[in-house]
């Protein structure tokens, strides 16, 4: 690892509490995917009804929460239902990150 990468990694680790996307306190695959996508500015690719996503909207009280897509193009935004909830929420595609479905 070169010095630039070491400094970048050290800076990310120093900010981990702030960046901890899932609130787990661990560098699990969901957390890493959300952090990497948010830092790279990558756009979400919500593919279909039923897709598993994570909320990546900074400042949202639901940041890092997992959800299922119920309408991928509801008036230009994505309608989801958070895990453990029944009320639909809506987000811009750029505020969601596609997760690998474990089911």
Describe this structure in words.
With 103 residues, the protein is of the alpha+beta class. It has a single domain (3-98), classed as Roll (SH3 type barrels), CATH 2.30.30. The chain has three helices and five strands; from the N terminus they run H-H-H-E-E-E-E-E. The protein has helices at residues 3-14, 16-19, 29-40, and strands at residues 52-55, 66-74, 77-82, 88-91, 96-98. The chain is elongated.
| Measured distance between first and last alpha carbons | 36 Å
Overall tally of domains: 1
- The strands making up the biggest β-sheet line up spatially as 4-3-2-1-5
| Topology-level CATH name | SH3 type barrels
Residue share in helices? 25-40%
For the residues shown, what is the average pLDDT?
76
Derived from helix and strand composition plus strand pairing, the structural class reads: alpha+beta
Based on the structure given, which CATH architecture is correct? Roll
Strand-residue proportion = 25-35%
The largest pleated sheet is described as:
5 strands, antiparallel
Shape: elongated
Rg value:
15 Å
Poorly predicted tracts of residues = none
- Give the helices and strands as they follow along the chain: HHHEEEEE
Name of the top-level CATH class: Mainly Beta
The tally of helices reads 3
User: Would you count the extended β strands for me?
Assistant: 5
Provide a short characterization of the protein structure.
By secondary structure, this protein is an alpha+beta fold. It has one domain (3-98): Roll (SH3 type barrels).
């Amino acid at each position: 690892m070169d010095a630039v990468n070491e400094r970048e990694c050290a800076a990310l680790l120093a900010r981990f509490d702030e960046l901890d996307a899932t609130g787990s306190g661990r560098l699990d695959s969901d957390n890493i995917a959300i952090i990497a996508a948010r830092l790279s500015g990558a756009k979400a690719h919500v593919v279909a009804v039923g897709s598993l996503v994570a909320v990546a909207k900074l400042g949202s009280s639901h940041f890092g929460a997992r959800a299922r897509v119920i309408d991928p193009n509801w008036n230009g935004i994505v309608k989801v239902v958070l895990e453990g909830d029944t009320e639909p929420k809506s987000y811009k595609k750029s505020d969601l990150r596609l997760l690998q479905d474990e089911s």
